[in-house]
Design goal:
Elements lengths: L3 H11 L4 E8 L14 E7 L9 H4 L3 E7 L21 E4 L3 H10 L6 E2 L4 E2 L4 E8 L5 E13 L4 E4 L11 H9 L5
Parallel strand pairs: 4-8
Antiparallel strand pairs: 1-2, 2-3, 5-7, 6-7, 7-8, 8-9
């Protein structure tokens, strides 16, 4: 990020990574061999201390985010001159429930959705509500509220997540069924 102070409101207040594990400034040996390895950086490691809930909570587990700012130099924006969908264009994605409320929260912190599929975007085998916001540097952050996923496509079994308790994780047997459906080489 170009300015950690500008990025923190999104990552802490909106995304819930409130706990600061460390906030250090210096030249870091774990950057050795990388371009700019002798530059001075500020690194802030954030953790979400809230308990994970929802259909996929058992898969996603605990997460941490590290924000890295180069000191004394204006960095190049990593997505400058790139388009979404370009080879190698990646972003962070969060599994969410309650997209409308999240949209309100993002907007109230000055990070409004830049894309919002509204309601349910049907992709045939799967469906969901997809939205994006940008951090202060233009890095895309995707939010997905999953509505439908295939369990056993060849039998026409799909899981409709819109009609289940959003706080309850999927049962272990359901994850086993999802594993059976993967394509083998």
């Amino acid at each position: 990020v170009s300015d950690i102070a500008k990025a923190l409101p999104l990552y802490q207040s909106v995304l819930g990574y409130k706990e600061i594990i460390y906030d250090e400034t210096g030249i870091f040996s774990d950057f050795n061999g990388l371009s700019g390895d002798q530059q001075k950086y500020r690194r802030v490691l954030l953790s979400s201390n809230s308990k994970r809930w929802g259909a996929f909570s058992r898969l996603l587990g605990h997460t941490e985010l590290e924000l890295v700012e180069i000191i004394g130099e204006q960095p190049k924006k990593i997505f400058e001159g790139r388009n979404w969908g370009d080879l190698g264009f990646i972003h962070v994605c969060f599994d969410v429930h309650g997209m409308a409320q999240l949209g309100t929260k993002c907007a109230s912190h000055n990070f409004p959705f830049t894309v919002d599929s509204s309601n349910s975007f049907d992709m045939g085998k799967a469906a969901g509500h997809f939205s994006y916001c940008e951090d202060p540097d233009g890095t895309l952050i995707e939010f997905v509220e999953t509505h439908k996923i295939p369990i056993m496509e060849k039998w026409g079994w799909y899981l409709n997540l819109k009609n289940r308790n959003p706080l309850k994780p999927l049962p272990d047997w359901m994850f086993s069924m999802l594993g059976l459906a993967k394509v083998k080489n």
